[in-house]
Design goal:
The complex is a heterodimer. Chain A is an alpha+beta fold. Helix content of chain A is about 25%, strand content about 30%. In chain A, helix 11 (about 440-450) crosses helix 12, helix 13 (about 505-520) runs antiparallel to helix 16 and helix 19 runs antiparallel to helix 20 (about 780-800). The radius of gyration of chain A is 42 Å and the shape is elongated. The chains are: A alpha+beta, B alpha+beta.
Chain lengths: ~800, ~350
């Protein structure tokens, strides 16, 4: 929404502010001004001149030498413009002045300075200007010639400012109107706000009753078949229409909001739409069959050709305006080609209606057509505004001599809106705001925006165009925005103290981040939605539970169409991005949710499980990744032994290099080398390792309670165990035996050598453990250690293990 | 030559030899040569029997004196040799301290997380609890309970990703407000950070998935002035003590009165620069007093309790604070980007 300052001043004549002041104050009172353009910022020393004499240039065929009366003097100007003749009044930029740009319409920031000079040897003191050089265009000044100097009407006064005469001594503001302020989608609404902001008087246009002694109802009959979608339909008639240009002031107002002036009739409907925020439509009454308007829903698949010549297809939720035989417009969106106003129009039917905003919004989306009118209707208009607007349009028709207004109105109205009333509670308002305003101050601010006080009922009464005032808080906002948000004191909440804290889960996540980073992993973030193709990329079978993913009904595209059930795709994609960019030794981690539905289609919210996902290529191997996992588990207080089951059955991992991680019999995650086929699919050309830890499971076992155990007082005894082990026996199995059979006195066991090769017989490997024995209450006897060792050896023999001599 | 002269000569001879000894081995040879069992001084001591008995004590004293003098010389020279050796060793061990450092390869935190942790630190310090809510959410919580009725344009498909008629991807963190209020534990001081989703195509300033931090305070006697005070404090903590804030009236369905908050540009201090597009101000968040309809729908009596709420875009803060010019960088996970944080 844009307005010029001069348009606002039509209703607030006392307003005297600079553009910056206006922008700042309006923004602080709630009508956000996004920016402004000073139309004559780059225009300087431009006045109205009159060409007294034109001679040929002695040395150039395409140039002419003009003597131009600029008021106090006559100057000589050389031009190549083809369209000027003696007697023409034209804009002239004098020596030392500035224009906004070239005649090609390209603007130069800061403008172009025009200096006295010689053109092919003939002196030229200034320049005659085209509308483009003045920073505008023929769209906004339709009377300007194509490729030529702008020519003023004969009554222009020589020597006066051309900028002023063109209405370029103005500022255009751009607003961001919030959706609750439907009234501010009209200039009157903004002007009312401006008057309130600067505490000036607001002048509503005076609309007198117009019309001859005839009756509109003799010209047109209106039937609304769906009053829910059309609570009000006002129709008036103007006959003996004379199409011509609209006055300059109206053209300038429209231009300031980017609307191209066309003719008096079109301009009046546009002007009233912008002024009142009420879209209007004009039909050629002679095209309306049966002189009858019927408002009804479209038939299924009904086709209709709109004003712009396009055929569009409706469904039965779209509201149509029809005559006795056919549709003539899509309600609130666009009129039809068949009832379009032409220059030959004799009698005009004006329509100002109120349609259901939601219906217009949905219809406009369905049809794929959004217009200025639909943009206003979809906000939900005040039905009381429709008549005011149509009367205003008729008044303008009469005032501008555009036709003879037929008396009366056809008004089909099923909903009258009553002003809303809110109990006036000054103490509560002060208590909500933290202010101490008096009742009188409050009422003054409210009165500025026409919120009146009914003393009898102690109520604030909001006019019907303010559809946003319903409760005390709404009234409080009206007060505080004119009092000034900046004047409200700043305090901190008092009252009962509360403890600031992070949840247990967030603390565990914090540790996950710390550990990952200590181990060289950087944090990545990837999207929660992905492509269903991911499952094939990860080699997941058709019946894999991972494929039970929640589809989004309106995704941005297939690539973002399902909620992820597995965190690996994001990780592998990020690693691949790094690999493609030749980044070496990359380690990433992510903490993000996967979304597991209980059933599909989704009935209840899915299980959102936070996954701690680690991935790396380059330096490091399976065991380093395993180490990172264990560092994390240990840090969150999971200090029991972890076990690893190599039969985890993950198709996306290397079949011989993967494991489920078990803690106290529960799977808490998995890790492994990415299957070479998968790595290739993603385009990672190095061995890639991943680990995925399920945070909800971790939360079941994690704990921050921890107790100190005394440092051992008695000496330890170390025994080394060197053995030849069948290849298929896992280190985990050996360690289980060492622990179970070593008993309490076995303090630790650690693998210090593993070897497979020529010295070892086929199918076997050599492994060596260092066992440390210690008792916490005495020095161990040789016999106790020997006893434990014997038990251990017996156990190992059971696995086919032989001791090395 | 009497004994005294003889001893003096011997001492002088020993001194020379000691000084000439360039290492500990040589020095030891000298010691043995003079003070050893077969050494010269020992020999003199052995020849005491030839000295007149009345002179013996005097001569004995002279010999012992000479012995301790030589021992002193030996000791001093030994120390000098050790010092020289250490000196030489230190000299040999000089390193080029400007050679590159050997760092542990520590990973880097995502800029979003760094910004989030900073925000959390500020609010936890003010007594706020950090809570979470579901990312796949009932429309009831995402809209209805936030005073956004069925036909409101904010529900428009243009903005929200839908799963079905009841469920959507939350388009804001505000549903956590409703969930927290419904639990009925008062007073409330909480922030709720998290992922939100809007159907915006990916470009330099948009992402279909981003993060917000919601804040909510509900108690008796909470005022708009408290909201202002709290957010001013927050802005100063986050952007520096010189930061000024500006509250502009705005509209959100779930707050009334509502405001948007600008902070003075931390790049130019408010003078106006390219960063703040010349205005001197940067918009950072939306806020307001919780709408009485919202309180009522969540089971709180608006006659007894009031409250305020605010919502901050996390990416917006991260982009501003670290002057990141393209939002896509945040989700590409290129380590050359991440390593800078």
């Amino acid at each position: 929404m844009n307005t010029s300052l001069s348009w606002i001043k039509m209703y607030v004549p006392d307003l005297d502010v600079t553009a910056q002041e206006y922008m700042d104050a309006m923004t602080l009172s709630g009508t956000k001004v996004e920016g402004y353009e000073i139309l004559d910022a780059d225009l300087d020393k431009i006045i109205i001149g009159q060409i007294e004499k034109i001679e040929k240039h002695p040395d150039a065929d395409k140039l002419i030498v003009c003597q131009v009366n600029v008021g106090k003097e006559t100057v000589q100007i050389v031009t190549g413009a083809p369209n000027v003749k003696e007697g023409d009044k034209i804009p002239v930029v004098l020596d030392g002045g500035r224009v906004a740009g070239g005649h090609d319409g390209k603007k130069t920031p800061g403008g172009i300075e025009i200096k006295k000079g010689k053109l092919r040897g003939v002196e030229s003191c200034g320049m005659m200007c085209s509308i483009e050089e003045l920073g505008s265009n023929r769209e906004m000044y339709p009377e300007a010639p194509e490729n030529g100097i702008y020519i003023f009407p004969e009554d222009a006064v020589v020597g006066e400012s051309a900028v002023k005469a063109l209405g370029l001594d103005d500022v255009v503001f751009e607003y961001e109107i919030t959706s609750n302020r439907v009234d501010c989608y009209g200039v009157l609404g903004i002007a009312r706000e401006a008057a309130a902001t600067f505490n000036k008087k607001f002048h509503m246009p005076e609309v007198q009753e117009t019309g001859n002694s005839e009756k509109a109802e003799d010209y047109i009959k209106v039937t609304v078949k769906d009053p829910e979608l059309c609570p009000r339909y006002c129709a008036r008639v103007v006959k003996n229409v004379k199409i011509g240009p609209s006055p300059k002031w109206m053209q300038r107002c429209l231009a300031s909001n980017g609307i191209r002036p066309i003719n008096n009739l079109v301009d009046i409907t546009n002007y009233v739409m912008e002024e009142y925020g009420q879209p209007m439509h004009a039909y050629d009454l002679d095209t309306i069959e049966g002189r009858e308007i019927i408002v009804r829903r479209a038939d299924k698949n009904e086709k209709f050709v709109t004003l712009d010549g396009q055929e569009r297809e409706m469904d039965d939720s779209v509201l149509m305006i029809c005559d006795g035989e056919k549709a003539v417009g899509i309600a609130g969106i666009m009129g039809g080609e068949n009832s379009m106003i032409t220059d030959q129009v004799k009698t005009v039917l004006f329509e100002a209606a109120c349609f259901n905003g939601t219906n217009i919004r949905l219809s406009s989306k369905k049809i794929g057509l959004r217009t200025d009118a639909s943009g206003k209707f979809e906000k939900g208009l005040d039905p009381n505004n429709a008549q005011a607007a149509i009367d205003r349009a008729c008044q303008l028709m009469e005032e501008l001599g555009a036709g003879e207004v037929v008396g009366g109105i056809v008004d089909v109205c099923s909903e009258t809106r009553e002003p809303s009333r809110v109990k006036f509670e000054p103490e509560k308002i002060n208590a909500l705001l933290g202010t101490s305003l008096t009742k009188e101050e409050m009422l003054d601010y409210l009165n500025r925006v026409e919120l009146s006080y009914d003393e009898e009922t102690n109520e604030i009464v909001a006019p019907t165009f303010r559809q946003d005032i319903h409760c005390m808080a709404d009234v409080a906002e009206e007060i505080v925005r004119f009092y000034g948000y900046d004047k409200v004191p700043t305090t901190l909440p008092t009252g009962e103290a509360t403890t600031g804290k992070l949840s247990f889960k967030l603390r565990i996540e914090e540790i996950a981040r710390d550990i990952a980073e200590y181990c060289g992993f950087s944090q990545g973030m990837t999207y929660s939605f992905e492509s269903p193709k991911v499952f094939d990329k990860l080699l997941l079978p058709q019946d894999s539970p991972f494929r039970q993913a929640i589809p989004i009904s309106n995704p941005l595209g297939e690539d973002y169409s399902i909620m992820r059930t597995i965190s690996l795709n994001g990780m592998l994609t990020s690693l691949a991005t790094n690999y493609n960019r030749r980044n070496k030794d990359v380690r990433l981690y992510e903490l993000g949710n996967v979304y597991l539905p209980e059933e599909l289609p989704l009935k209840e919210l899915p299980d959102e499980r936070m996954k701690f996902t680690l991935g790396m290529y380059g330096k490091g191997d399976f065991f380093e990744m395993k180490g990172v996992c264990e560092e994390f588990f240990e840090k969150v207080g999971m200090k029991d032994k972890f076990t690893y089951d190599p039969n985890s059955g993950k198709p996306f991992l290397h079949p011989g290099r993967q494991a489920d991680i078990f803690y106290q019999g529960t799977v808490v995650g998995y890790l492994g080398e990415v299957h070479p086929v998968v790595a290739e699919t993603y385009g990672i050309g190095e061995k890639t390792y991943v680990a995925v830890i399920d945070i909800p499971t971790v939360l079941e076992y994690a704990s921050f309670s921890h107790k100190y155990t005394g440092i051992a007082k008695y000496p330890a005894v170390t025994r080394d165990l060197s053995m030849v082990v069948p290849k298929e026996v896992l280190a985990g199995q050996i360690e289980d035996i060492l622990r179970q059979r070593g008993g309490k006195i076995l303090e630790s066991c650690s693998l210090f050598d593993i070897y497979e090769g020529s010295q070892i017989k086929n199918g076997y490997k050599s492994m060596a453990y260092s066992l440390v024995f210690r008792a916490h209450d005495k020095t161990l006897e040789e016999s106790e250690i020997n006893g434990a060792m014997k038990k251990i050896l017996n156990g190992l023999t059971g696995l086919g293990i032989e001791l090395r001599s | 030559m009497d004994m005294k002269q003889k001893l003096e000569a011997l001492h002088e001879e020993a001194r020379k030899k000691i000084m000439e000894s360039g290492n500990l081995d040589k020095l030891n040879e000298v010691r043995v040569a003079y003070l050893g069992k077969k050494g010269e001084l020992t020999a003199i001591l052995k020849s005491m029997k030839d000295v007149a008995p009345e002179d013996r004590p005097k001569v004995g004293q002279l010999v012992n004196e000479t012995r301790s003098r030589i021992e002193g010389l030996l000791e001093n020279h030994k120390k000098a040799l050790a010092d020289a050796k250490r000196e030489a060793q230190l000299k040999a061990e000089v390193i080029d301290v400007t050679l590159p450092a050997k760092k542990a390869r520590i990973g880097h935190r995502h800029p979003n997380t760094i910004a989030l942790e900073e925000v959390e630190r500020i609010f936890v310090g003010m007594g706020y609890e950090v809570v979470e809510g579901p990312e796949v959410e009932y429309q009831d919580y995402n809209f209805t309970k936030l005073n956004i009725p069925e036909d409101h344009p904010a529900r428009d498909e243009q903005d929200t990703f839908f799963i079905n008629k009841e469920i959507c991807l939350r388009s804001q963190t505000s549903p956590v407000q409703a969930r927290t209020m419904e639990q009925g534990k008062l007073p409330i001081r909480m922030i709720a950070p998290g992922r939100v989703f809007r159907s915006d195509e990916v470009d330099a300033t948009h992402s279909p998935s981003f993060h917000q931090i919601e804040g909510l305070v509900i108690d008796k006697n909470i005022t708009f002035a408290d909201l202002k005070g709290t957010l001013e404090e927050f802005a100063k903590e986050l952007f520096g003590p010189e930061t000024k804030t500006k509250f502009r009236p705005h509209h959100f369905p779930f707050t009334e009165p509502s405001a948007e908050v600008d902070v003075s540009c931390f790049k130019c201090g408010g003078k106006g620069c390219r960063f703040c597009k010349g205005s001197g101000w940067i918009e950072i968040l939306g806020c307001g007093m919780v709408h009485p309809n919202v309180l009522r729908m969540c089971g709180i009596d608006p006659e007894e309790y009031t409250g305020f709420a605010f919502g901050v875009g996390l990416e917006r803060i991260a982009l501003l604070k670290y002057e990141i010019d393209d939002m896509r960088l945040l989700y590409e996970n290129d380590i050359r980007f991440l390593n800078q944080f």
